[in-house]
Each structure stands twice: as C-alpha cells, then as structure tokens.
Amino acid sequence: GAGVSQSPRYKVAKRGQDVALRCDPISGHVSLFWYQQALGQGPEFLTYFQNEAQLDKSGLPSDRFFAERPEGSVSTLKIQRTQQEDSAVYLCASSFAGNYNEQFFGPGTRLTVL
Amino acid sequence: QKEVEQDPGPLSVPEGAIVSLNCTYSNSAFQYFMWYRQYSRKGPELLMYTYSSGNKEDGRFTAQVDKSSKYISLFIRDSQPSDSATYLCAMILAAGGSYIPTFGRGTSLIVHP
Prior knowledge:
The structure holds two protein chains of two kinds.
Chain A: E1 5-7, E2 10-13, E3 19-24, E4 31-37, E5 44-50, E6 53-56, E7 65-68, E8 75-79, E9 88-95, E10 104-105, E11 109-113
Parallel strand pairs in A: 2-11
Antiparallel strand pairs in A: 1-3, 3-8, 4-5, 4-9, 5-6, 7-8, 9-10, 9-11
Chain B: E1 4-5, E2 11-14, E3 19-25, E4 32-38, E5 45-51, E6 54-58, E7 61-66, E8 71-76, E9 85-92, E10 102-103, E11 107-112
Parallel strand pairs in B: 2-11
Antiparallel strand pairs in B: 1-3, 3-8, 4-5, 4-9, 6-7, 7-8, 9-10, 9-11
C-alpha cells in the first residue's frame, strides 16, 4: 500500500509569511508524529496525535507553530510569521496505536525561509 | 551534552567490509532502541528495533544493546554501495507512558566499490 506522503516536498517562503505543510499518513495508522530535522542533525520531536487528539505538543518551538488533525487522518502543520531559523526539513511519521518504535516516515517537506 | 550521542562521520569503507555504527546514551531508563537508515532527501526508514538488552539479527544487519555500558551498535556485514546513507539511532523510554523517540544526529556511511 501507499506510504506516508507529504506535500509540498519543497517550500520557499519569505520571512514573515505563513506556511502550511500537509501529511497523509498510512491508512489505519492511529498515531501521527511531526518532527523537525535541521541540516546534519537527527529529527527533533514537535508534536504527537492519536486519532484527532493532540496528546503532546511539548516540542513545538513557539506559539507560531500549530498542528491539527481534525478527522484523525490528514494532518497539517502550520507555521505563522516564518523566520529564518524555521528553515529545516519537516518530517511526518505514522504508526499503529502503541507501536511507537515502528514509525513510518514520509519524505519530508524542505522549508527554506529567505 | 545530548541524551544520545552519535559520531557524524563520514565513515568510508570499501565494499564487502564489516561496518560498525555506534551510539552512546546517558539515560539508563531507555528501553526501546531503534536504527533508521536515511538516504539523501528521503525520510528515515526503520531497519531494526530491540527491546532492552541483547542482540537481534536480520539478514546482513545485527543490532546490539549493552545497557550496562549505555552503548548500542549496528553491524552491517558484506557492505554494499547501496548501504551508503545516514544511519540514525533512536531510543524510547516507554516507562511512564513516554513514547517520544530521542534521535542521535546520525552517522554518514559511504561504501565505495
């Protein structure tokens, strides 16, 4: 079946613009994670959903970052008033409930803020 | 000091070599240990995971966990150019409902023909 998909794959934004990044998880996967990966670093946790409930948003770096998953499938990560330090790859991962150690990652969205 | 330390490399080996990739960690409460492979401009792909201590083998890959030393390893036998990628270790506490993986920064591996 299809894996995790993310769109857009690449996004260039001017500083101060708002962006929205989309994640389509694997069908049937209850758990959904967002990560931020800076160049040369490992993924850093941002937020976690179980179905439509956002159970943990402790990794979101500021209140400019907002994530939602209203129907328990597709998720959107929104960044308001983007800044240069937001430039990174944003990864989405999904898994079956309870299988946190078996996450399936999407290809990521590479965000560049000019 | 980060919770999970991983040498970024690059590690360059000839085809057919045995590769050893390692991570150290500081939190002795970690229980799940994973290895991911990440090709350039792709998302990480789970290779193996291990619960607690011990070894696990899958084809050319062997994962080892030494909780007493807080040290985990991934061995790749008969390495191939297609193994060239960044290898990320990750760990989960699991206890107390903590399910968020902590990743190392990744080791870049280059296998040359």
